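hiii so um. not sure if this is the right channel but i have a protein structure encoded as tokens and i wanna go backwards to a sequence. like what aa goes where. can anyone help
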């Protein structure tokens, strides 16, 4: 028996409809004018602004997303991405990231240590190796070969937070999911209709060493197909992996759903299959079709995303399925 009442937050959807255009099926898509960039959470605003500098000058969406997420990766105040990211339970900051272009080229790094910009390393994996994914020691060796420099990612305030956590060493990502995660996933459509995406994170705070979330997994944390659209995620990575979340959203768009309807359908299906096992967890989906229409939806309230279009940069609330 499900103890929770379902609420569909129509208010969120109404405001979205005004911004992102009609929920048209794939065959009726009308291209939005100019480039569009979206990213998860409110720190996406600064990231979008950096991406926009490239997009507005007729640059490539892939360059835009890499430059965009480099901002929170370098920002020590963001405790869920790059420098200053919360470590695992052993005090090691391990980063996950992936990147994908409109032609299904993709690259990824998992459990990468000591490098501030894992998304840039993921792009090198895509462009300079015959592989899609490198992990751990091998990813670090590759990054060094490519000229990336090591830095101390465990900055003093984050080390202090880890030492505080160690006093109880209690790992339960469910009740405090607001506090210990927040990946940045970004999707951009450039002036030449090329769509790219990226996803980068330090993952769940206090995770087991070696834990890899959804963020570097193509199809889970990110999926892009220039023929259709792209999707990216945030939330509890284990949940996104079990439903191949981003790929599921893109396939729903391929079958004719708008980005909004696709995100909703995937969250609803997840909840239908998982029921009580989903309670207390968060699943946040963000999608854009190859005409620049955007949708977002989450299981629980609280998910916001940043959208930049025609130079306007703003944070919007996503609709959601369940009350807390
Ligand atoms: N999805 C990320 C992970 O599980 C966390 C997050 O989005 O905040 O590693």
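sure thing!! here u go:
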């Amino acid at each position: 028996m499900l103890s929770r009442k379902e609420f569909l937050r129509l208010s969120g959807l109404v405001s979205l409809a005004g911004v992102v255009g009609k929920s048209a099926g794939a065959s009726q898509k009308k291209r939005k004018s100019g480039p569009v960039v979206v990213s998860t959470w409110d720190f996406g605003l600064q990231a979008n602004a950096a991406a926009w500098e490239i997009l507005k000058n007729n640059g490539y969406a892939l360059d835009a997303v890499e430059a965009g997420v480099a901002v929170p990766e370098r920002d020590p105040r963001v405790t869920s991405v790059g420098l200053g990211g919360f470590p695992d339970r052993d005090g090691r900051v391990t980063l996950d990231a992936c990147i994908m272009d409109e032609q299904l080229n993709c690259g990824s790094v998992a459990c990468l240590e000591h490098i501030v910009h894992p998304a840039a390393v993921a792009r090198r994996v895509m462009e300079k190796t015959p592989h899609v994914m490198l992990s751990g020691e091998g990813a670090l060796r590759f990054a060094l070969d490519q000229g990336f420099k090591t830095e101390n990612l465990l900055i003093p305030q984050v080390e202090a937070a880890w030492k505080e956590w160690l006093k109880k060493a209690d790992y339960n990502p469910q009740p405090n999911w607001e506090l210990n995660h927040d990946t940045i996933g970004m999707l951009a459509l450039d002036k030449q209709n090329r769509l790219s995406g990226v996803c980068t994170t330090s993952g769940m705070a206090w995770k087991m060493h070696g834990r890899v979330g959804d963020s570097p997994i193509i199809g889970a944390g990110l999926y892009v197909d220039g023929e259709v659209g792209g999707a990216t995620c945030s939330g509890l990575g284990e949940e996104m992996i079990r439903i191949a979340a981003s790929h599921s959203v893109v396939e729903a768009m391929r079958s004719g759903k708008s980005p909004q309807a696709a995100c909703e359908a995937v969250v609803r299906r997840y909840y239908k299959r998982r029921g009580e096992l989903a309670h207390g967890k968060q699943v946040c989906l963000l999608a854009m079709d190859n005409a620049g229409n955007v949708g977002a939806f989450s299981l629980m309230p609280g998910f916001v995303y940043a959208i930049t279009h025609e130079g306007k940069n703003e944070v919007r609330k996503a609709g959601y399925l369940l009350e807390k």
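oh and Residues 80, 181-183, 201, 203-204, 213-215, 234-237 surround aspartic acid (CB under 6 Å).
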